[in-house]
Write a structure and sequence with these properties.
With 391 residues, the chain is α+β, with helices and mostly antiparallel strands. The protein is built from 21 helices and four strands. The relative contact order is 0.09.
Length: 391
């Protein structure tokens, strides 16, 4: 018979082993080598961190907090007896590109965002956009189905005549998607994830041109809608044009370049019923997409021949003209890292006492000394936050 003293000792030993394994798992998931992590944590050598991970050396509270920050984890992750496995995002990246660090940063943002929604009792709406499609819908004529789906979602979201300029706001505020803009390394262009615990997340490369970001957002939206239709293996990593990836491009083109609006604008832009090179660039600027997207949309609508589109797109002079005419747009539109809705929810939670100042600073990646100025700039000061009447 085991005494209660021995039972408590066994439980404590088990907890220590769980903590050791969590520390190592968190480091590996965040993409840090043991040497790199030890340096960032301020240890004199990697052997100290190795000893902690092996359970040979005890860890103090300050060290655990530092690890939680570096690895993008909450303290609960290390201390709770059971934790759910991390969701697996769908990446568009080169095969050998390591995205572990950026993936952990992405998932940490989604977890924080989800926590704010939970604290404020906000319902998620992302399932509103997931239609009841299955593989049979794409088995006969998948390209036609993707084009049709783009038109349906355009109408459902009421994106208007220039969808590119409304899509981000609608996804964030109407459907409550969690969209993060980060500087991604060469070889990675974006990611998306659907998870019942944290909702829908989309990662966009802030380094890309605005029209590329618009198209990527629409492209990822297709994967969100058809999350349960195609497997990750079928979709691939975005470096090869698999069928689902081609469907996503057709969907994005249909969504951002709605047929009626595009053709009406083409009539207004073209002279003497002739499409000129300059007209394609003007259409791309008006609709917030690339000239390549306009060309292939017009080919699909049978307004241009494929050979005509390829001839222009392969011409270096056209590339130079396109680049020069839109150069100013690169610096004109640069989104902030965190969505305005995320910032607003964080401010609300702090003002209502639902999160601490330390948590607020950690979520928004600012110093605690900057909090009051940050709140004032966002309009969240006591005077503005006074209650007026019952809602």
């Amino acid at each position: 018979m085991i005494s209660k003293g021995h039972e408590s000792e066994a439980a404590a030993l088990k907890e220590e082993k769980v903590l050791d394994k969590r520390i190592m798992a968190a480091r590996q998931a965040a993409g840090f080598s043991i040497t790199e992590a030890a340096q960032k944590l301020g240890f004199k050598n990697y052997q100290t961190l190795s000893a902690i991970e092996k359970g040979v050396r005890n860890i103090n509270a300050h060290e655990l907090i530092m690890m939680a920050r570096l690895y993008g984890r909450s303290l609960d992750y290390f201390l709770e007896s059971e934790v759910a496995p991390d969701p697996v995002p769908l990446w568009r990246k080169a095969k050998k590109t390591d995205v572990n660090q950026i993936q952990r940063q992405f998932l940490s943002f989604l977890e924080n965002y989800s926590n704010l929604e939970h604290l404020l009792g906000l319902k998620r709406r992302w399932k509103d956009v997931q239609k009841n499609y299955d593989r049979d819908d794409f088995s006969v004529n998948g390209f036609e189905q993707a084009d049709k789906l783009g038109a349906e979602i355009h109408n459902f979201l009421d994106l208007g005549s220039r969808p590119s300029f409304n899509l981000l706001n609608v996804l964030e505020n109407k459907l409550r998607f969690k969209i993060l803009h980060l500087s991604l390394r060469v070889g990675a262009s974006g990611a998306s994830v659907v998870d019942n615990a944290i909702g829908v997340g989309i990662l966009i490369n802030v380094n890309d041109a605005p029209w590329r970001r618009n198209f990527d957002l629409a492209h990822e939206l297709f994967h969100i809608i058809t999350w349960n239709v195609f497997s990750p293996e079928e979709i691939g990593n975005g470096t090869t044009k698999t069928r689902p990836e081609q469907y996503a491009d057709i969907f994005a083109s249909s969504l951002l370049l709605p047929e009626a609006h595009l053709l009406d604008t083409l009539k207004e832009t073209a002279t003497d019923n002739e499409i000129r090179v300059i007209d394609i660039i003007e259409l791309a600027k008006k609709f917030g997409v690339s000239t390549e997207a306009v060309f292939w949309r017009l080919v699909n609508l049978k307004k241009l021949k494929k050979s005509q589109a390829l001839k222009v797109l392969d011409n270096p002079k056209f590339r130079d003209l396109d680049r020069n005419m839109r150069r100013r747009l690169y610096s004109k539109d640069s989104p902030s890292k965190f969505p305005s809705r995320f910032i607003s929810l964080a401010c609300r939670c702090l003002m209502e006492g639902k999160i601490s100042r330390g948590t607020f600073a950690a979520y928004l990646e600012i110093d605690r000394a900057e909090i009051d100025d940050y709140l004032e700039a966002a309009g969240f000061v006591e005077g503005n936050y006074a209650k007026i009447a019952a809602a």
